[in-house]
Amino acid sequence: MAFPLPHGGRLLTLKETHPSESRLKEIDSEPRIVIDGETSITIYNIASGILSPLRGFMGEADYLNVLKSMRLADDTPWTIPILLHAPSDFKAGLGDEVSLVDGQGIPVATLEFSESYRISKQEFANKVYGTEDAAHPGVAKTYAASETAVAGNLTEVLVRRDRQFEDATLSPRETRYLFRQKGWREIVAFQTRNAPHIGHEYVQKTALAFADGIFINPVIGKKKPGDFKDDVILDAYKALVKNYYPADSVVLSILNYEMQYAGPKEAIMHAIMRKNFGCTHIAIGRDHAGVGNYYGPYAAQEIFKEFPDLGIEPVFFKEFFYCNKCGGIASEKICPHPESDRLTFSGTKLRKMFQAGETPPKEFMRPEVSRVILSHPSPFVE
Amino acid sequence: LSGQITEPEQKVEVALPTPLVKKIADMIHISPVDARFADYVANILREAIASRESSHFDRVDDAESEEIRARLKKIGYL
């Protein structure tokens, strides 16, 4: 398989810069929009090429086409709009420089204003999340945002102040270079937001059986109470890779990104981001990017049928479990034994064990991984 | 191409040879006037375009390569 092109054909990046004193004074006089933490993360993801071919926040034509057809206005597959919300009275003229500042008024980026438009929150919720239920975390976030969206390309991105996990963060340009240096042609991306149990390892190693390497790309950022903390996930993966993977078969790098819990639509976005990192395949398991019971267990696999031109191949997995009769990891597809013989990889069960200071059985999690988790004084988000 | 754009779907009518239309319809067991026919043909074309695009490489220049290499070495990936 040929090394994949970035999504939309070119990796569009913008270097982070240190603004001069005079530039900072100019920024002070520009119209400004105060952005939240998630928008700031999105800006850096656009700048590093993770969200190529986007060069900024979507205009109305792209927005409407994404909702209607799951594609940008130029037919490039895209399933979740990337919007910059602004106060309803925000005004700027075509081509004006707009400063995007954080909650403390510190500049993050500059955008060249192209248009502003109103969105329907209900339509957004229905088309993206498949529900208007405010109990869905993505829908709740949509309802809390402004109905005014501002569009334009980013013209300047300032050097980020928060450089957490910098040494474990690679950009798409870097991963593409690295994969070539390693001589990898087939690379399977693995998206995760959990510390690895045996089921995860099984999926990754099954993929590794046909691929040259795997790209383990844990998502860090805003989490729910009870989720593993970011540093715990990273340390746990380092322990797993060091002890159980052949040398030079894995690249581990984190992705700063806020989960949308949009199930199938988000699975496509996860694939697009990993395509930009240079991956040829992405592992998609049961209820990928789901929450509650909003999506069918394999809806995130079925949606890929609609994107023959996505440019990254999904690799589908059923739910894995440990089967006492088989004496190893199995799935419904390969194991004939009843549920009573199966030990399922339940996150809730794992959390309870760790909270009680217990080590999970080795059929459930590698002892080296368990040790790393237990060594953290408080491994879960409170 | 007939060049006729039909709003608001922003689609363009394309003239295909009748035998080819019949062949495609037979392949997917539907009538050529079925809406799915257009989606099916669009997807075949998208797939064909995507496979041609991916035969190229996305290259970086020497200076950038050196910068990337230095950082990857510094943080232990190379």
Euclidean distance between termini CA atoms of chain A: 44 Å
Low-pLDDT residue intervals, each spanning 5 or more residues of chain B: 1-8
- By helix and strand content of chain B, what is the structural category? mainly alpha
Q: Strand count, sense and closure of the main sheet of chain A?
A: 7 strands, mixed
| N- and C-termini, Cα separation of chain B | 51 Å
What pair of chains forms the biggest interface? A-B, 26 and 23 residues
Order of helices and strands of chain B: EEHHH
The total strand number of chain B stands at: 2
Proportion of helical residues of chain A: 25-40%
Largest sheet of chain B: 2 strands, antiparallel
Mean pLDDT of chain B: 76
- Share of residues in strands of chain A: 15-25%
**Rg from Cα of chain A:** 21 Å
Cα radius of gyration of chain B in angstroms: 22 Å
Q: What is the spatial order of strands in the main beta sheet of chain B?
A: 1-2
Q: What is the residue-averaged pLDDT of chain A? A: 94
**β content of chain B, as a range?**
5-15%
Summarize the model shown:
The complex is a heterodimer of chains A (382) and B (78). Chain A is of the alpha/beta class.
Question: Would you write up a description of this structure?
Answer:
- The complex is a heterodimer of chains A (382) and B (78).
- With 382 residues, chain A is of the alpha/beta class.
- Helix content of chain A is 31%, strand content 20%.
- In chain A, the strands form three sheets. In chain A, strands 1, 2, 3, 4, 5, 6 and 7 form a seven-stranded mixed β-sheet that branches. In chain A, strands 8, 9, 10, 11, 12 and 13 form a six-stranded parallel β-sheet that branches. Chain A has a three-stranded antiparallel β-sheet with strand order 15-14-16, covered by helices on one side.
- In chain A, helix 4 runs antiparallel to helix 5 and helix 8 (230-244) packs antiparallel against helix 12 (367-375).
- The termini of chain A are far apart.
- The model of chain B is unreliable at 1-8 (pLDDT under 50).
- Chain B has three helices and two strands; from the N terminus they run E-E-H-H-H.
- A two-stranded antiparallel sheet of chain B has the order 1-2.
- The longest helix of chain B is centred in the middle third of the chain and has 19 residues, at 35-53.
- At the A-B interface, helix 6 of A face helix 2 and helix 3 of B.
